[in-house]
């Protein structure tokens, strides 16, 4: 078993509730304002979802990830309502990029709740849009509906891709492992042939260098 299988199996070996909790935590961190800089949310989600092997488990994973994404949006929205326009001048927003904040707020002004839906598919911006929506005074029910509608297909896509990638990674690694055995076998054969040829040449040189009367005796010894 190789590194890929070892990594996936170590995660898959955890109790299912822990895997689901990890997926939820990574998703929440990815979608909540600021935490995406600290938590490798999308990568962690994909790793956790790569352990999905059955349809039922995939559906549960999808539901958990969707709820976590909506919860992250809700927290971001509340932060925006609490601090308003002052958020743009905070160290956090400056670190995430004020230009990204401006894109998010401009998107909210142009599209309203639709911005929350579309921003789900845009890295960084998706973490800022709920807070921008709270700052802009978008009604929470509108944000919630848009968040659910965006999070559901986003979660389905990530869980599906991760589950397929996890299985594909194992299959590819299995094929590579099989190929490596053939490669190793070929290398061993090549080394053996090289040594035999080298020995044969050395034998001929040794025999040629000896007096005729000793050739027969040396050939028998070799």
Give the DSSP E fraction (strand runs of 2 or more residues).
under 5%
Gap from first CA to last CA? 44 Å
Structural class, please?
mainly alpha
Biggest pleated-sheet summary = none
Percent range for helical residues? over 70%
Number of strands: 0
Shape: elongated
Which blocks of ≥5 consecutive residues have pLDDT under 50?
1-8, 172-181
Kindly report the average pLDDT value: 74
Write the H/E string, N to C: HHHHHHHHHH
Secondary structure tally, helices: 10
Structure characterization notes:
By secondary structure, the protein is mainly α. The protein is built from 10 helices and no strands. The protein is elongated. It starts with a helix and ends with a helix. 82% of the residues lie in helices and 0% in strands.
């Amino acid at each position: 078993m190789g590194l890929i299988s070892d990594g996936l199996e170590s995660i898959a070996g955890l109790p299912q509730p822990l895997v689901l909790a990890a997926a939820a935590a990574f998703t929440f961190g990815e979608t909540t304002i600021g935490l995406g800089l600290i938590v490798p949310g999308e990568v962690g989600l994909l790793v956790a979802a790569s352990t999905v092997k059955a349809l039922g488990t995939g559906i549960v994973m999808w539901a958990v990830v969707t709820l976590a994404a909506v919860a992250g949006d809700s927290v971001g929205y509340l932060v925006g309502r609490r601090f308003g326009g002052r958020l743009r001048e905070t160290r956090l927003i400056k670190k995430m990029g004020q230009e990204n904040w401006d894109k998010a707020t401009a998107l909210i002004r142009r599209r309203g709740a639709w911005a929350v839906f579309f921003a789900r598919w845009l890295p960084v911006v998706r973490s800022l849009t709920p807070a921008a929506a709270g700052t802009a005074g978008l009604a929470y029910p509108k944000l919630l509906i848009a968040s659910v509608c965006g999070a559901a297909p986003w979660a389905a896509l990530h869980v599906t891709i991760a589950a397929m990638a996890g299985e594909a990674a194992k299959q590819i690694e299995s094929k590579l492992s099989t190929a490596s055995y053939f490669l190793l076998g070929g290398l061993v054969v090549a080394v053996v042939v090289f040594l035999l040829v080298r020995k044969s040449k050395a034998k001929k040189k040794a025999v040629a260098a000896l007096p005729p009367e000793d050739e027969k005796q040396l050939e028998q010894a070799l």
